[in-house]
Amino acid sequence: MNKYVCEFIGTFALVFFGCATILFMRSEVGLLGVALAFGLSVVAMAYSIGPISGAHLNPAVSLGFLVSGRLGSGDLVGYVIAQCFGAIVAAGVLYVIAQGKVSGFDVAANGFAQNGWSAYSVVSAFLFELVATFLFVTVILNATSQAGSGPVAGLAIGLTLVAIHLAGIVVSGASVNPARSLGPALFAGGAAMSQLWLYIVAPCLGAAAAGLLLRNRAILVGDTAAQAA
To answer: Helical H runs in 100-177?
Structure first.
């Protein structure tokens, strides 16, 4: 149960800090500030709850771990529920805060840090989310492996998320995380809900591909070691 509580808290923190930066501070900090908010949130959670749950904070990441053979199916369900619940609660808290704006806050007019595409086509957004999630999960799986980055794994993962946001915020919103997209979309409604499917399907496909890559590499290395013995 501790693992699931940690995933709830970690995903809450990711959505709270990242989406709060978009909602309340984007004009002050710009896209770089938004990217850093998401990336640094991951770094903080990786070093605080990582030893307990692995700090997935993302259903797609958990799926990648499942496919790679490093997470059981029972834990996948628990992780995904905790992550989605954490994202929804974080969005709810942000909604209450936003409603306290003295000059008023209109979700329809101001948005709610939801992911979506408009400047680029749905194909562009889908491809970016798929490729970016594949690269992100590949970094996570390798950085956290026994032969991985060790003490600096959290930093490597967080900086990768910063790079993803810098590369694709304008294209797709740079979600690479179904839970992060789900929470704000429930409060934004409209187009955010109609476009939510992309932020579930594309990241999950990318994560599954990364998991398969690592699993096949492990099998290949195992076979090579057996032949050498």
So the answer is: 107-110, 122-143, 153-172
Per residue in 186-221, pLDDT (tens digit) is 999 999 999 999 999 999 999 999 999 998 876 655
Q: State the residue range of the domain holding 168.
A: 3-100+111-216
Task: Report yes or no on 225 lying in a domain.
Answer: no
What is d(CA 223, CA 229) in angstroms, rounded to the nearest whole number?
Answer: 10
Tabulate helix, strand, coil % of the chain (nearest 5). 80, 0, 20
> Tokens representing 183?
């929470």
Structural domain contains residue 105: no
Q: Are 64 and 87 in contact (CB under 8 A)?
A: no
The DSSP secondary-structure symbol of 120 reads S
Q: What is the CATH number of the domain that holds 200?
A: 1.20.1080.10
Could you tell me if 178 and 59 are in contact, meaning their C-beta atoms sit under 8 angstroms apart? yes
What digits encode the pLDDT tens for the residues 49-99? 999 999 999 999 999 999 999 999 999 999 999 999 999 999 999 999 999
Contact 114, 38 (CB under 8 A): no
What angle in degrees, to the nearest 10, is found between the helix axes of 73-99 and 2-48?
70
Say how far apart CA 152 and CA 105 lie, in whole Å: 40
User: Could you tell me if residue 167 is left (phi over 0), alpha (psi between -120 and 50 degrees) or otherwise beta?
Assistant: alpha
For the chain, what is the domain count?
A: 1
* Residue 229: inside a domain: no
- Rounded to an integer, what distance in angstroms lies between the CA atom of residue 185 and that of residue 114? 6
Strands (E), the chain: none
